Automatic annotation (TrEMBL):
<dbReference type="Pfam" id="PF00406">
    <property type="entry name" value="ADK"/>
</dbReference>
<protein>
    <recommendedName>
        <fullName>adenylate kinase</fullName>
        <ecNumber>2.7.4.3</ecNumber>
    </recommendedName>
</protein>
<dbReference type="InterPro" id="IPR006259">
    <property type="entry name" value="Adenyl_kin_sub"/>
</dbReference>
<feature type="region of interest" description="Disordered">
    <location>
        <begin position="1"/>
        <end position="64"/>
    </location>
</feature>
<dbReference type="InterPro" id="IPR000850">
    <property type="entry name" value="Adenylat/UMP-CMP_kin"/>
</dbReference>
<dbReference type="InterPro" id="IPR027417">
    <property type="entry name" value="P-loop_NTPase"/>
</dbReference>
<keyword id="KW-0150">Chloroplast</keyword>
<dbReference type="GO" id="GO:0009507">
    <property type="term" value="C:chloroplast"/>
</dbReference>
<comment type="similarity">
    <text>Belongs to the adenylate kinase family.</text>
</comment>
<keyword id="KW-0067">ATP-binding</keyword>
<keyword id="KW-0808">Transferase</keyword>
<feature type="compositionally biased region" description="Basic residues">
    <location>
        <begin position="49"/>
        <end position="64"/>
    </location>
</feature>
<keyword id="KW-0934">Plastid</keyword>
<keyword id="KW-0547">Nucleotide-binding</keyword>
<feature type="compositionally biased region" description="Low complexity">
    <location>
        <begin position="35"/>
        <end position="44"/>
    </location>
</feature>
<dbReference type="GO" id="GO:0004017">
    <property type="term" value="F:AMP kinase activity"/>
</dbReference>
<dbReference type="InterPro" id="IPR033690">
    <property type="entry name" value="Adenylat_kinase_CS"/>
</dbReference>
Length: 310
């Protein structure tokens, strides 16, 4: 929990006496100090009364500090940690853009991280490409550390993160659990297989802007863009069917790890409707986190006041 606490206290005039100074004058005669009759029935000038006055003033001072802290404490909830899953072309990319725009989360795509490795021609990239071309999952040791390092970067820690398309297997999910990486919500987009194949085969990439188009559902704005569009090597019908088989084989095992966090959405619906459902779920999570953090602050301040008064 992130807690921004402002401490400010000025003792009330009744505690300071006639002087307008904020500092307590210990050399001023006790008889010249004014206290409410509810606290003291009489003022004596012997040593025991002086000690009682000093002790009760300190308690009054500490209680006021604690009350002031409770009033001025500003609570910033922990940032959202979201996972979104679905088969290839289930609409994860579109929904991630909408979520990122509204909630400011850092979008982390395991697929993009892998493709960057493939494009760079590293040894891990070559191994990843071999598996991707066969419709197989990339070895966990390649992906897990890549994802972990990205999640631990300052922007993701401060703003929250949206992990797209990962984990994809039980072993990957367990690896994240072992690293104490767990989401607040696991969004699952459910789309029919026929629709998925149609979406994948018609998908095209603009290599200049890296924007994704679809020849039927989201065509390019003009001929210039259309002329430079390319198809990803794994976006053919043959390869997407292999990927879907792998996805279906592993998704149930992944869901078993996050069964208490799953929010299932019908991905066949228009993207605006899908986002409306997701938006409502994320708003609820934020409200719960804010309520929990606020309750913790109130409890903490109450404990502070009790300890100071004792």
């Amino acid at each position: 929990m992130s807690l921004l606490t402002s401490l400010s206290y000025s003792p009330p005039p009744s505690a300071l006496g006639p002087s307008s100074s904020s500092s307590f004058n210990h050399h001023k005669p006790i008889s010249d100090l004014h206290y409410s009759s509810s606290s003291y029935s009489s003022v004596r000038t012997d040593g025991r009364s002086r000690r009682r006055l000093s002790t009760r003033f300190r308690r009054s001072h500490h209680s006021a500090v604690a009350r002031s802290t409770t009033i001025t404490a500003a609570v910033k909830p922990e940032p959202l940690k979201i996972m979104i899953s679905g088969a290839p072309a289930s609409g994860k990319g579109t929904q991630c853009e909408l979520i990122k725009e509204k909630y400011g989360l850092v979008h982390i795509s395991a697929g993009d991280l892998l493709r960057a490795e493939v494009a760079s021609g590293t040894e891990n990239g070559k191994r990843a490409k071999e598996n991707m071309e066969k419709g197989m999952l990339v070895p966990d040791e390649i992906v897990v550390m890549m994802v972990k390092e990205r999640l631990l970067q300052p922007d993701a820690q401060e703003n929250g993160w949206l992990l797209d398309g990962y984990p994809r297997s039980l072993s990957q999910a367990k690896a994240l659990e072992d690293l104490h990486i767990r989401p607040d919500l696991f969004i699952l987009l459910d789309v029919s297989e026929d629709a998925l194949i149609e979406r994948v085969v018609g998908r095209r990439l603009d290599p200049v802007t890296e924007k994704i188009y679809h020849l039927k559902y989201s065509p390019p704005e003009n001929e210039e863009i259309a002329s430079r569009l390319t198809q990803r090597f794994d976006d053919t019908e043959e390869k997407v069917k292999l990927r879907l088989q792998t996805h279906h084989r592993n998704v149930e095992a992944v869901l078993s790890v996050y069964k208490d966090l799953i929010f299932k959405v019908d991905g066949n619906a228009p993207k605006e409707n899908v986002f409306t459902e997701i938006d409502g779920a994320l708003s609820s999570v934020l409200e719960q986190k804010s309520g929990t953090d606020s309750a913790s602050v109130v409890t903490g301040m109450a404990s502070l006041e009790t300890s100071l008064d004792s």
